[in-house]
Design a protein that fits this description.
3% helix, five-stranded antiparallel beta sheet, Methylamine Dehydrogenase, Chain H, Jelly Rolls, mainly beta, 14-stranded antiparallel beta sheet, 3 helices, single chain, Immunoglobulin-like, 664 residues, 54% strand, 4 domains, elongated
């Protein structure tokens, strides 16, 4: 049917419409390509970095190489260097290991669940502080273990420092620093910090610097009973302190790690272990709330305090100082970051383990990394092998075609993709395939991953754009509502529909008399509102149906546009009033009501303007197009002259009236 014929049909029906103005939609639809755009450190940080460093401004570059050595424990909490030997204190079974010449061996099992601190004794052995028992143990070069001292009233030994032949211990609860006479095996309180825990203890010239927990402060200790707080920070703990030039740098966390560690219990699980199987890569999540964040604060020797940076990946465990800046290990996401003196942060490493609990610094930067969940030691050196960046699993809402993948960078970059219908990826996904003319060769699916291999040492990636276009999905009609307005004698039609792709919808409205075949259109172009008012004055009385078709044609090419239709419940068009014929005989009002369009629903009678009463239909039910009725008149109406007003109402709300005068 042509638009001219449609217009004639519309006019001949005499239906008056309130037409909507067309509003251009800005919502993206399946007809338009979308793109995932990775251009910042936060964007790239959601993926997995293998052998890559990430800088907020310059993007991804090849990182130094790492050699991993597994340790049969759940976490490495502390360490001590003694020449070629690296002593490791672990939990959750309080074991002490030595890493030497690339091999790990266990040398001691201490009381408690966690080795809180280690310090080399200068004679090939170490002193070890325990968490939960308040003991300081000594392990000599041959592995013999003996209890050096148990400090009364102390449960946790968090930090040990050997200076001038005296061993100093930072403790909790109580926050005291104790001086231990190694020869006499005695301990006495040296200084109080006013906090609950002393988590870090370093030498600073002739003094000590203590970092505390429960109150995140730095306390300078210059002698026995000579302690003064020199800085306080927003947070709950100072987990690590380092001196660099004319300032002290402190790792400050919002959550109290000390309290959590002190409640640890040993388990039989060994997430790290010495097995050869590679750890499963962590599933990256988008950044959520700011809870549990860590930060590095600077306390200058002249008293000034400022925040250097906020950790992009959660709490900070241990920090180290190098000429190029501050290196920090994350206690949440397995990242090792470095910040320059202006606070610009770069991710140096992204480890499989989720906790980096120890950072040993060398002359040019980090030398060794110690982890938890599971326990491993990473030696830093050389260049990374097969450096690769893999995006997080990227998800669309429906089956999607994958388009161009534009990698902006330099050097030799090899871009690949794979797709599938599950998250995390499984063997049901397609294989990794290189791009062809910058376009993905992965089959349509719901999920996609992109991998970029850095094939040269100077390769760099600073931007990644991944284009895709979902397959068009048909709109859904949800409801049609038709409500008559008796006062205006119009019909209010409203409907709801949904385009799952978010595109602009158009509507085609047609109607027909029930029992007929042909649908008659109410307009000659797409209707864009979701309601319409009909004034069906020229439509023959009867029952009708409305058909509303939703189409996404305004947002798609003609060959891809889809449509869905719904037919309303039948609705009544009845322009005629019921006809009433009545008379009074022997004190009884009787009559007949007839309606051509719909059923009679009620007959009401009013006497001399009084409130109306209901007349009884012949079969006690008013439900037909013709109904007989009767009503016995009150006795007082049998004398004198009276006026009766008889009103009959049909299903469409039309009312027919007869005025009847009785008596003399």
């Amino acid at each position: 049917m042509t638009s001219t014929k449609l217009r004639r049909t519309f006019l001949s029906a005499g239906v008056l419409l309130a037409l909507a103005t067309l509003v251009a939609g800005t919502t993206a639809s399946a007809s338009q390509p979308h793109d995932w755009h990775l251009a910042s450190g936060k964007d790239f940080g959601r993926g997995t970095l293998d052998g890559l460093a990430l800088h907020e401004e310059t993007g991804l570059t090849v990182a130094p190489g790492l050699k991993r050595t597994g340790v049969d424990a759940e976490l490495i909490h502390c360490w001590a260097r003694d020449g070629a030997k690296l002593w490791l204190g672990t939990g959750l079974q309080a074991k002490v290991f030595i890493l030497e010449n690339g091999k790990v061996r266990m040398v001691a099992k201490l009381p408690g669940v966690l080795v809180g601190s280690l310090v080399a004794d200068g004679q090939g052995g170490v002193y070890a502080g325990t968490v939960g028992r308040g003991k300081v143990m000594h392990i000599n070069a041959s592995g013999k273990v003996e209890e050096l001292v148990r400090i009364e009233g102390v449960r946790h030994i968090w930090a040990l420092l050997l200076k001038g032949g005296t061993l100093y211990a930072g403790t909790g609860s109580g926050g005291g620093v104790f001086a231990i006479d190694v020869a006499a095996k005695t301990a006495k309180l040296y200084a109080e910090t006013g906090a609950e825990h002393v988590l870090a203890l370093i030498a600073d010239g002739d003094a000590f610097i203590a970092g505390t927990g429960d109150a995140a402060t730095l306390v300078r200790i210059t002698g026995e009973n000579k302690a003064q707080a020199i800085a306080g920070f927003p947070g709950a703990e100072v987990s690590s302190v380092v001196r660099l030039g004319t300032a002290l740098y402190a790792a400050v966390n919002g959550g109290n790690t000390a309290a959590a560690l002190s409640a640890l219990r040993a388990t039989r699980q060994r997430p790290g272990g010495t097995g050869t199987a590679a750890l499963r890569k962590k599933k990256r999540k988008k950044p959520t709330s700011t809870g549990g964040k860590g930060a590095v604060w600077v306390r200058h020797d002249d008293g000034r305090i400022h925040r250097l940076f906020v950790s992009p990946t959660g709490t900070l465990s241990q920090i180290g100082g190098a000429g190029q800046g501050i290196v920090a290990g994350s206690g949440k996401d397995g990242h090792v970051v470095i910040a320059d003196m202006q606070g610009k942060v770069m991710t140096l490493f992204d480890l499989d383990e989720t906790q980096v609990l120890g950072v040993e610094m060398g002359a040019k930067g980090p030398k060794t990394l110690m982890t938890g969940k599971g326990a491993a030691v990473y030696s830093v050196g050389g260049a990374a092998k097969n450096p690769t960046y893999t995006t997080e699993v990227l998800r669309e809402t429906g089956v999607t075609r994958w388009g161009r993948i534009a990698a902006q960078g330099s050097g030799s970059l090899i871009v690949e993709s794979r797709s599938g219908f599950s998250n995390p990826p499984s063997d049901t996904w397609s294989a990794w395939q290189p791009l062809k003319n910058e376009r993905s060769q992965s089959p349509p699916a719901t999920y996609l991953q992109v991998r970029v291999r850095f094939a040269s040492a100077d390769a760099r990636l600073w931007e990644l754009r991944i284009f895709r276009r979902p397959f068009n999905r048909a709109p859904t009609m949800r409801s049609i509502t038709i409500i008559p307005n008796i006062k205006t004698r119009t019909l209010r039609v409203s409907w709801s529909a949904l385009d799952p792709d978010g595109g602009t919808l158009g509507y085609v409205l047609t109607y027909r008399k029930r029992g007929t075949v042909q649908w008659l259109m109410l307009h000659d172009r797409f209707y864009t509102k979701t309601s319409m008012t009909l004034s069906p004055r020229d439509m023959p009385d009867g029952w009708y149906e409305m058909r509303i078709e939703a189409t996404d044609a305004p947002s798609n090419t003609p060959s891809e546009a889809l449509r869905t239709a719904m037919i309303s419940k039948p609705f009544l068009v009845d322009q005629g009033r019921p006809e009433v014929s009545a008379q009074v005989r022997d004190g009884v009002l009787t009559g007949v009501v007839a309606d051509r369009g719909s059923n009679v629903l009620s007959v009401m009678v009013s006497f001399d303007g009084e409130p109306p009463v209901l007349a009884r239909c012949g079969d006690h039910i008013c439900d037909g197009k013709q109904e007989a009725f009767e009503l016995k008149l009150p006795p007082d109406l049998l004398k004198g002259r009276h006026t009766l007003l008889i009103q009959a109402t049909d299903e469409a709300g039309n009312t027919g009236v007869q005025r009847l005068v009785i008596g003399q």
